[in-house]
Design a protein that fits this description.
Blueprint: E1 6-10, H1 14-25, E2 29-34, E3 54-57, H2 59-66, H3 71-79, E4 82-84, E5 86-92, E6 98-104, E7 112-116, H4 117-129, E8 134-138, E9 140-146, E10 151-156, E11 167-172, E12 175-178, H5 185-190, E13 197-212, E14 232-237, E15 242-247, E16 253-259, H6 261-268, H7 275-283, H8 293-302, E17 306-314, E18 317-318, E19 322-324, H9 327-330, H10 339-360, H11 363-368, H12 373-411, H13 417-432, H14 441-447, H15 452-488, H16 495-513
Parallel strand pairs: 1-2, 1-12, 2-8, 5-14, 12-19
Antiparallel strand pairs: 3-7, 4-7, 5-6, 9-10, 10-11, 13-16, 13-17, 14-15, 15-16, 18-19
Helix pairs in contact: 1-4, 1-10, 2-10, 10-12, 12-15, 15-16
Length: 514
């Protein structure tokens, strides 16, 4: 985009706010439309009607904010985050004692950051509010859009006079950015103009939020406001259930229970409230010493039990008029901690491509060719948005799939010897043979900026290499022994074949599972 454009952003969450900041930094007239009231107002209903505010911020999200040309933004973010250097796996030993097992995320000591979602959002909105070319429109609901004529219609909700009929306004734009979440209105209207493939999936898991309160200062011997380590993501894994806790600056932990819908229904039917603490004692040992049983019951009954949705679609744009980012394009389950990070990365990649096309096809050249500047800008955007869809769709689909797969890892594989063996081997190669460029899949995703699809390809390649080495190390002695006995004892002639089949089956299982 070479000349000043009118950019309409729908959605004032972190992704929408960052995209507005990128557009405003390029001199465009930016209008931000948000369905809810000002998100900085504590009385505004949170997303999904929950208080969930803790998010995992990793390198991709940080890198996107670095490119926003706002040094104070990064300074603020780093000042209010809590580094989490790994997972803390909670369980119970055979003798009944509680156990904790730390698993670092990265052999080089890198951490992901726990951050208050509301605080990050507020900081972005405050920066935007100080920019003269940015205007906010809260309580505005997108009701229609014409992406051929670049017009949109918003219903204005008057929160003070709810009984009066809402009025509707018409808005013109050069480009609309849809960052309005998994149930995106922008995407809905865009589908009327483009042949979009769309896939939506709810997994058979619900989630509910709980809180571990800060340690009371009056407690004897207390040296920290945190009841458990603040530098870990705490996991109570189970085959079908999972309970996690993420630290907050005030010493509390935002906790989430993930369980099948059928289990939630069983606990909801517990009128006396006795089954809920028993459930936690059975599957998440130690939690009832961190959250009082009556608080567990109250949180389970008062907080909503929400589904987890996964959304895939393509393309992410229509012509030069509109593009969707973040959850509007690729809502994912939260088990890789990449939802917000991928959305913020969308912004960096989108504007990088827009800038590239602006440099390569500037309006000066277009004027010489007899094309009007406005038409030239639209032509540039169309090429840029098409490239963005082509580049980003495979990566977004890749991280969407990884997030689903990571649910299995967090619930069960973290306790698996095979999982820990592969992690140990990959980290050892990363440290002792760095020229190989060997890293774990998690490190590539969370501590780098490689394309998600490239991460998957490299991880699969590493898995095949490790598997061949493992099969060679373990299988050859067995096969050699089988051949020896087959030659010596004719009746055992099929031993070598059977061992070979066994090792092949084992290899296939490990490659698929890990």
């Amino acid at each position: 985009m070479d000349s000043t454009q009118r950019v309409v952003v729908v959605g004032a969450g972190p992704v929408g706010s960052l995209s507005a900041l990128y557009a405003a930094n390029r001199g465009h007239a930016v209008e931000i439309y948000e369905l809810r009231s000002d998100l900085r107002d504590p009385s505004t209903t949170p997303l999904n009607f929950t208080r969930s505010i803790n998010l995992a911020l990793s390198e991709r999200g940080l890198n996107a904010m670095r490119h926003a040309d706002q040094p104070k933004l990064i300074d603020h973010v780093m000042a209010v985050t809590i580094p989490m250097r790994g997972r803390m796996i909670h369980g119970k030993l055979p003798n009944g004692e509680l156990s904790e097992q730390a698993q670092d995320y990265d052999v080089h000591g890198r951490s992901i950051l726990a951050i208050d979602r509301g605080g990050l959002n507020k900081r972005l909105l405050d920066i935007l509010e100080d920019m003269p070319n940015v205007t906010f429109f809260f309580n505005h609901k997108l009701t229609g859009a014409d992406f051929q004529r670049n017009k949109a219609w918003f219903e204005v909700r008057d929160t003070e006079t709810r009984e009066q009929r809402s009025k509707e306004i018409e808005v013109d734009f050069d480009m609309m950015i849809g960052a309005d979440g998994a149930h995106s209105a922008v995407r809905y209207h865009m589908m009327k103009y483009t042949r979009m493939d769309y896939q939506q999936e709810y997994i058979d898991t619900l989630w509910c939020e709980f809180q571990i309160q800060p340690r009371k200062e009056s407690q004897p011997g207390s040296t920290s406001k945190f009841k458990i380590s603040p530098n870990h993501l705490h996991i109570w894994p189970g085959r079908d259930f999972m309970f996690i806790a993420i630290p907050s600056e005030d010493g509390s932990f935002t906790c989430t229970l993930f369980a099948p819908a059928a289990r939630f229904e069983e606990l909801e039917a517990d009128a006396a409230g006795t089954q809920i603490p028993e459930f936690f004692d059975n599957y998440f040992p130690g939690v009832t010493s961190l959250i009082l049983p009556e608080e567990l019951v109250a949180s389970f009954r008062q907080n909503p039990h929400l589904p987890l949705i996964s959304v895939k679609c393509k393309p992410y744009h229509h012509s030069s008029s509109v593009v969707v980012l973040g959850d509007a394009a690729h809502a994912m389950v939260p088990f890789y901690g990449q939802g917000m990070n991928a959305g913020l990365e969308d912004v960096r990649i989108l504007f990088g491509i827009l800038d590239k096309h602006s440099r390569e096809n500037g309006t000066a050249a277009a004027i010489e060719a007899g094309v009007l500047p406005a038409d030239a800008a639209a032509s540039q955007r169309a090429l840029a948005l098409a490239e963005y869809s082509a580049v980003r769709v495979p990566d977004a689909h890749a991280i969407n799939d990884l997030a689903l797969q990571n649910y299995t890892e967090m619930r069960a594989s973290v306790l698996s010897p095979a999982y820990r063996l592969r992690k140990f081997l990959e980290e050892s190669l990363s440290v002792y043979v760095p020229r190989l460029g060997w890293q774990t899949k998690y490190s590539r995703v969370s501590f780098g900026n490689e394309c998600y699809s490239d991460v998957v390809a490299k991880s699969e390649h590493q898995g095949r290499v490790l598997l061949r080495g493992l099969v060679g190390a373990l299988g050859m002695p067995l096969i050699a022994g089988g051949v020896f006995f087959a030659l010596r004892y004719r009746r055992a002639a099929d031993i070598g074949v059977r061992l070979g089949q066994f090792m092949s089956s084992l290899a296939g299982f490990i490659l698929h599972k890990y």
